[in-house]
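Per your request, structure below.
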């Protein structure tokens, strides 16, 4: 083995070894979501006694927003948060380790009201006076106790006279972070300009005096002011790393209204064994189908792609384990989809190699040229997906942010497995076996279709579907939203005989409750167990009757019925839409830099077109939007541009080679025909995985799979008919001077395409 090949081989071995080391054992390293493993549910109650009635709703919404930010920052996974009634919030945390329950509860209840108060300048003298005369504290001051504990020493207490009115409060704080200081962990904070000016004035006037740091009316520390301080400071105390991190997180997200945990329960997985089994079965079916297709169609090259695919799955699971991403059933479906996406890059490479072989090149030269020429296309195609994923990771919250993390990891591992693993195996095979040919089947022969001739029928068809879907959405109103968005009735049911959640789901589905939430819950203190079912508003009694009729021996009866809000709050909706908007701008900038502005606008038009078509057909089939459906739409938003970028890349390439020889319309038609084989093949491999989800995945992920199937087909259609024709509409007269110098010809039909 030559030295460069050996170095690459060792690099891959190191990466695989690190991946396995972090992944093993998977049952301990992979964090499962509420739907697969269950977790802990907290019911919190807001103290609204000091607020006017008209402020109660805003206080509840604000508390939910702050709790989500706090819990997202702790890395606890895709936490479910929803309002219950007028003053309660239900928080469910997946797979919570017992050692983390205390800190999680503290994060939920901590108000994080920060105050900086001056200590009396003659603190010791006044304390002595009070002790001698048994008098009261000086006017404007209160007596506080500062508790300190140093390693190896007993806990000490100090009495401190602290000013009642604070000099500065947490409303001026803009940032807080845990740091390892000289005396242990501390929390560094930054103030806004107004706060910095106040802090500077107070510290300048009180050098040599002490400043008390009070958190939630508890004295944390009282350091001596050594000099004038501007917009930054530190909070010191007896913190360990976790305590400092939690405090910094709380300070950045302070609660305006006190919260108290009034109930804590252990919760079972919201999905039954049948649903989980169906999802796993769909995954295996999709993987096997893709592997068989690649083996049959690409033969030996297909085996190389399949090995790279297995490595990709291993690396993706390792990334999930390393960064503690939470894996839900839609997440499993997303990984299954990655099976289809991951071979896209290999298809691009193999089709490029086929082209080079048809030009008469030797196999080794064709392989080298195929990988090199496909590399830029692969990067461009996946970069648009990565931009979407990174923006959603940055701006998203809750499940939107979790989706962004998982999609980012999938893109990186897919590209790595294709351009590094596949290339390594191919180069090793060429060096050792010294083959002279590479056999592959051919599904699509060379075509000369005038695709641009169908541009107006295609635009009219898309417009009709989108307008029809919009009309239907307006007509249905709030009926397009499921319980995840609108909230509904939350039934707490008692029972004498436990029924599997999958059987309960089938019974509710038969009664018309297709998006019902089902979960068994147990009290932490005590042995009581209850069944919680959430259905649309005013449907609780009907759902209870449906279950009682379906399982007469189970003794199912209502204990209480609550009104709960949706898990997809306004902030989550806003962040998802903002993320897609910023991602679209990022895609515009990237494709403009790599191609030109017209290509960038065409790509974004295709992306919005695909999302709109998916939503329209989703509404036509009488489905309701849920968190799972949103995840599928985000997946399509990230993936649908792959084929578009591949076609754009070929148009750019042909423009450089043949720009003086043909019109722009002819050039576009030629490029679409040249890439038709790989466009159909890349879509087919992804479609195989998506269809397996739809057929074998069961009812729980049926909506997710439906959007994926529609999205993959629509993405291919828009790449061929919408995005490409948009370029011609943008440049209707491009190369017009050359057209006049030539005899008219039918676009895309008279030129002989190069060997494919």
């Amino acid at each position: 083995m030559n030295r460069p090949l050996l170095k690459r081989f060792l690099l891959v071995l190191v990466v695989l070894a690190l991946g396995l080391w972090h992944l093993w054992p998977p049952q301990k390293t992979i964090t499962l979501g509420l739907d697969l493993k269950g977790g802990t549910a907290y019911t919190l109650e807001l103290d609204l006694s000091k607020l006017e009635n008209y402020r109660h709703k805003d206080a509840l919404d604000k508390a939910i927003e702050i709790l989500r930010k706090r819990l997202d920052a702790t890395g606890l996974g895709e936490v479910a948060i929803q309002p219950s009634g007028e003053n309660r919030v239900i928080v469910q945390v997946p797979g919570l380790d017992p050692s983390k329950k205390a800190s999680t509860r503290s994060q939920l209840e901590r108000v994080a009201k920060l105050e900086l108060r001056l200590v009396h300048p003659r603190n010791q003298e006044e304390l002595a006076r009070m002790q001698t005369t048994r008098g009261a504290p000086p006017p404007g001051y209160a007596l506080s106790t500062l508790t300190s504990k140093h390693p190896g020493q007993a806990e000490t207490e100090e009495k401190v006279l602290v000013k009642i009115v604070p000099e500065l409060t947490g409303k001026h704080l803009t940032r807080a972070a845990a740091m390892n200081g000289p005396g242990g962990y501390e929390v560094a904070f930054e103030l806004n300009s107004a706060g910095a000016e106040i802090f500077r004035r107070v510290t300048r006037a009180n050098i040599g005096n002490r400043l008390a740091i009070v958190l939630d009316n508890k004295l944390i520390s009282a350091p001596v002011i050594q000099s004038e301080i501007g917009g930054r400071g530190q909070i010191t105390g007896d913190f360990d790393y976790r305590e400092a991190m939690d405090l910094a997180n709380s300070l950045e997200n302070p609660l305006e209204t006190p919260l108290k945990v009034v109930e804590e329960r252990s919760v079972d997985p919201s999905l039954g064994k049948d649903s989980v089994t169906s999802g796993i079965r769909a995954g295996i079916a999709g993987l096997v189908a893709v592997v068989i297709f690649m083996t049959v169609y690409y033969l030996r090259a297909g085996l190389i792609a399949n090995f790279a695919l297995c490595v990709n799955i291993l690396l993706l699971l390792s990334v999930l384990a390393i960064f503690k991403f939470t894996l839900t059933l839609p997440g499993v479906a997303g990984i299954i989809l990655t099976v289809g996406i991951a071979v896209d890059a290999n298809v691009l490479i193999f089709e490029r190699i086929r082209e080079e072989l048809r030009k008469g090149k030797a196999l080794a030269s064709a392989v080298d040229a195929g990988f090199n020429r496909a590399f830029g296309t692969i990067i461009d195609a996946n970069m648009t997906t990565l931009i979407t994923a990174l923006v959603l990771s940055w701006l998203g919250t809750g499940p939107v942010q979790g989706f962004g993390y998982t999609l980012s990891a999938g893109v990186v591992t897919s590209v790595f497995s294709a351009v590094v693993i596949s290339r390594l195996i191919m180069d090793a095979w060429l060096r050792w076996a010294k083959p002279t040919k590479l056999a592959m089947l051919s599904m699509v022969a060379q075509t000369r279709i005038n695709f641009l001739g169908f541009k107006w029928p295609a635009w009219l068809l898309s417009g009709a579907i989108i307008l029809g879907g919009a009309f239907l959405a307006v007509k249905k109103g709030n009926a397009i939203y499921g319980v995840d968005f609108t909230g509904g009735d939350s039934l707490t049911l008692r029972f004498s005989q436990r029924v599997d959640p999958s059987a309960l789901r089938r019974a509710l589905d038969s009664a018309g409750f297709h998006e019902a939430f089902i979960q068994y819950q147990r009290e932490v203190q005590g042995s009581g167990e209850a069944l919680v079912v959430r259905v649309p508003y005013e449907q609780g009694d009907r759902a209870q009757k449906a279950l009682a009729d379906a399982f007469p021996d189970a003794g199912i009866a209502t204990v209480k019925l609550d009104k709960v809000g949706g898990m997809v709050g306004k902030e989550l909706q806003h962040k998802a839409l903002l993320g897609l908007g910023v991602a679209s701008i990022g895609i515009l900038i990237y494709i403009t830099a790599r191609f030109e502005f017209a290509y960038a606008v065409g790509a974004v038009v295709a992306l919005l077109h695909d999302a709109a078509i998916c939503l329209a057909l989703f509404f036509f089939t009488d489905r309701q939007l849920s968190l799972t459906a949103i995840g599928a739409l985000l997946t399509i938003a990230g993936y649908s541009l792959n084929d578009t970028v591949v076609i754009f890349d070929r148009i750019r390439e042909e423009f450089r080679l043949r720009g003086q020889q043909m019109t722009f319309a002819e050039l576009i038609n030629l490029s679409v025909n040249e890439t038709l084989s790989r466009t159909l093949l890349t879509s087919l491999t992804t479609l195989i995985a998506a269809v397996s989800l739809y057929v074998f995945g069961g009812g729980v992920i049926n909506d997710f799979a439906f959007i994926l199937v529609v999205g993959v087909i629509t993405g291919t259609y828009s790449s061929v008919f919408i995005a490409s024709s948009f370029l011609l509409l943008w440049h209707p007269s491009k190369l017009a001077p050359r057209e006049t110098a030539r005899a008219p010809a039918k676009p895309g039909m008279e030129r002989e395409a190069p060997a494919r």
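Residues 735-756 have pLDDT under 50 and may be disordered.

Regards,
D.
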